Every structure is written in structure tokens, then in C-alpha cells.
Amino acid sequence: MQKERGFTLWFTGLSGAGKTTIADIVEHELRERGRRVEVLDGDIVRTNLSKGLGFDREDRNVNVLRIGFVANLLARNGVAVVVSAISPYKEARDQVRRRIIDFVEVFVDAPLEVCAERDVKGLYAKAFAGEIPQFTGVSDPYEPPAAPDLIIKTDEEEPHESARKVIEKLEFFGYLQPSAEETGYQWGPH
Asked: How is the chain split among helix, strand and coil, in percent rounded to 5?
């Protein structure tokens, strides 16, 4: 039996850009295609693997590097790893990219105003009011990737359309066999 080629699919972008929403749809499609999948969501990892870290630049980079370490272990063992993490600094993302051979970076791009409108937790309002220091995109920088493998503009398209583009990119790179028709998966809300 031939081992499937693992990979790390890394979604980066501002809070509220749509990373987790798209990652969930992609995860479902990967499972429908029979892939072993693990999802590493930034908030969940921070609670379990990086508890005690703050939100200054050094701690954020440590968190990203920890996520990258786990993703690499899984991917090299044939797992499709889906990472959804703000990962605001280029330096840490680039370091992870250098360490993981099969790495696909997706920049989930949405304007700050759109992300703030989508914010159900009210974090942006608190950040704009100065109640949350070091909030990415408001009082702390987000450094967009210089050359991501895919840019998704979530203010211009529906999540299923974005997910379809991600799946097509994975097929293009050879991580998935085409196509959606063969799996019977219908793009769009279920």
C-alpha cells in the first residue's frame, strides 16, 4: 500500500478574515476524499499547546513555530494538515515554510473594516477602544505574505467558492487527485 503524501495547508490572515470557515469546508472535502486530516486552529492550539504565552511578537512567533512543528510531524507521516492561524509575522511564517517540505500558504485577505464587521466576539470594538493591547491589524501589525501560493479575497466571494479554489490548488500541486465530480461533492452549502 502506497503512503499518501502529507502536506500542510496554512491559512493566514486577520481575525475575522474567514480562515476557520474556509478551513472547515476544506477539511470536510478532504475527509470526503478519504484523506487523513488534522486541523490545527490557532485559538485551540494556543489554549492547549501554547498556554501561558502572551501576545507580544516573540510569544506569537513561538506559537506559530510550535504549530509548524506539530504540522511537520503530521505531514511527514502522510496526514493532510490544515492550519488556521493569524500568524501575523512574515519571519515566523517563512521559517515554518522552510522547515515543512510540502507547504501551501493561503493568504485569506479581507479588509480590516470587513473583519471588524464580522466580529461576533466584539474584539475589534475593544481593540479600537484601546481595551485590548497588541491586537493584530489594529495596534499590532499584520505582515501579509509576499508570495503566498494562493490569495483568497473573502470580501469578494462566498466561503464555498474560496474553498473550491483551495482544493483546486491542492490538485494542481498534486496533493489531491482531481476532481470534485469524481467524489460527488457539490460545492455550496449543504
From this structure: 45, 15, 40
Neighbours of 133 (CB within 10 A): 11
- Choose the catalytic residue: 87, 139, 162, 179: 87
This prediction's pTM = 0.90
Q: What is the pLDDT of residue 2?
A: 52
Cell triple for 36 = 487523513
In sign, the C-alpha dihedral spanning 37, 40, 44, 47 is: positive
Identify whether the C-beta of residue 111 lies closer than 8 Å to the C-beta of residue 37. no
Which is more confident, 161 or 179? 161
DSSP letter (8 states) at residue 125: H
Q: In this structure, how many other beta carbons lie within 10 angstroms of the beta carbon of residue 156?
A: 11
Burial class (CB in 10 A: 0-12, 13-18, 19+), 23: buried
Indicate the burial class of 57 (C-beta count within 10 angstroms; 0-12, 13-18, 19 or more). middle
Catalytic residue list contains 87: yes
DSSP 148-166: -SEEEETTTS-HHHHHHHH
- pLDDT for 70-112, tens place per residue? 999 999 999 999 999 999 999 999 999 999 999 999 999 999 9
